[in-house]
Amino acid sequence: MDRPADVLAGVVEALPAGIFALDASGRFILWNAAAERLTGWAAADVVGHDVSGSTLDVRTADRILDELREGRAFSGRLPASTATGRSVYFRAAPGPGGTIVGLLRDVVDTGAEDEAFALLDALWETAPVGLAYFDIGGRYRRVNGAVLDMDGGSADDRIGRTLEEVHGPTGAAMAEGLIATLADGRTRTDVPVQGRLWHGRGPEQDWRVNYYAVRSPDGTIVGGGVVITDATAAERNRRELAAVAAEREHALNRYQSLVEATSAAVWIRDADGSASSDAPALRAITGQTAAEYMGWGFADAVHPDHRDGLRRAWRAAAAAELAGVFTRVYRLRTAAGEYRWFRTRAVPVHAGGRVVEWVGTETDIDDAMRSRERLDVLAEATYAMKAALDPEGELAALAEAVVPAFADLCRVYLFDPGPQRSRAVSGRRSVTRVARWMRHPPANGERFAFRDSHPIARSMRTGTPMLVPITTDTMQEWGAGGEQVRWGREIGANSMLVAPIESRGEVVAALLLMSCRDRARYTEDDLAFVRELAERASIAFDTAITFQQSRRVSVALQSAMLATPPAHPGVEIEARYLPAAAELQIGGDWYDAFPLPGGGLAVGVGDVVGHDLPAAATMGQLRSMLRGLAHDSSSEGGDATPSAVVARLDRVACGLAVTAFTTLIYGTLTRCGERTLFRWSNAGHPAPVLVVPGAAPRLLRGADVVLGVDPEAGRHDREVELPPGSTLLLYTDGLMERRDDPDDRAAAELLELVRSGVDLPLPAFCDHLVRGSSADTGDDIAVLAVRVDA
Fold first, then answer.
1. Is 593 in contact with 784 (CB distance < 8 Å)?
2. Cβ count near 623 (within 10 Å)
3. pTM tops 0.70, yes or no
């Protein structure tokens, strides 16, 4: 069983958030996999190094360490560029034994949080009431200026100490409510406290104290907030201050809700989500008037695709018994008339046990969303192109990946081969994909010819991507006809990207992407994206061409070397071949059957190591050499026994360096009176299987060394009679080989597979073997079956 420490280490390593830790001297002792992904800094380059010797400058690192060693948590962005190009947000806090532990996150998720913290910091310092924050141990972590004005002393007199340590018995009385709130998380409001601070040295005072629990995103209580008002004068004139106290409590509730809100454009809405209060900051973004904004008018600026979902979400949040933080991401129309991605976050303000209003913000996250969108499209397009096996299929997969995720229209133009000598560039359209709402471009035939001023022609001649704004004037400059100009206006085309696709140093195609209607105009960031997309398409195009060339060669090899076995008197012959490289349709295994000059039949099955064209080429050489040597030996009246032929083949192949490792079984079938004899020699190959009528299948065991190892090694012949109706099976190890076979069950399962299908007609028997194989290595399979006439 794993030790608890090992289990914990595994859990930390698998966490989706970046986790790091430093020892008391400031050296990194932990940097998990998520931290590596976020920053691009490998753990081997971080762990064991002093933080001030890392990518942080020394002054920044020392300041952060000083804060943490004094017991204060620290958060912010990493003040250096990461290797991934991301901005990374971090939080760190003191740990046990002087260590420091921290969390890393993508700044896309925390940028809005930083803005909120800046806003809250200003509110904290200017609040008209005393505000203090305590950690889970009841120690001061922060106080605002109002506390100092009210009770005297300085922040340094308090930070890191408890209320009782600072104020004595009166502080202990104040701490009772705080300790209770930290224990049960329940809010305590308007708690009266009376006494003298500074261990009795201060004046007699009265306070009203409110205690709130502060929770982490997972709900754990991490500290407590205390709101203090000086009630000394109020106690003397309580009636006059009753109305003021009620208003102040409402302000405090609103402030508490704002602590959890984020971003810059702050607004307040009613309990049902509608707007009865103006929000100038938000209207500055959308360009709406106050009248247009009120009620549910603010939703008119939301993109139509997201508008109904936003309304439903608001109604559901308002109807919830325990309303929590409301978060929604959608596209918002700006004052400039373009749609950008925004995130809204709102928290409920409670009074009397119910939601009375919502305090929220809008954060512009368009850059982050579009960056993530580009990465997703790039990954999808790359995967789709790799799966295609021909150049045009690869380009079609690219178009499918970018429409509609990144473009409303994608066209790929294939140029005519050879240099384009005229001023116009010509070729044919390979593929066109459009968004569902768009009608196809006007048909101009499958051929195209663009004048020099057209972006396609310029990109093709310069070999550089281009970002092109689309207007009626620019379309006419390119030579677009009236119908195309009208179509461009109809679809609301606003910009396009053009990029060349190269193959072997020449521009062979051009990629055109178009943005229309309310899709944002393409930017320089999008141009960089399409440049990367075109480079990947160029690589995939090259790969597809190479594959097609390999496939043509492999099909030719297969047709030439794995032909249908010949007819032969007295026997029936069938063969099957299944390559491991299914797309190439070729591999290193082969079968062969051919007549010999003396009237016999030669049969063989071999296996060259490898599953590619080199293996296939070696296979072709060995097959041809075997045929020649067998035929020559039988014609000259020399030693034509299988062992002699295999020995000669081994010597010739080694002498010519044809192969380094090949298994082979070669044999002859001859008639001797009424008997059919099979004589064979085995060079390290799986044993043949013989099935005699009325008997169980059996392996014809016995083998010599493989080809290509020792050409002078002795070789042996073995012989068996094949009674009428018997079936002889030769095969390669791809038919039976398994990755995990500790009990050596493969041979027994092969014999059972043969037994269950041997009564089938010979073609069906061969199909039965290939389909029913239990092999799992993905190796080539070659099968040659011979059945003696009954």
1. yes
2. 21
3. no
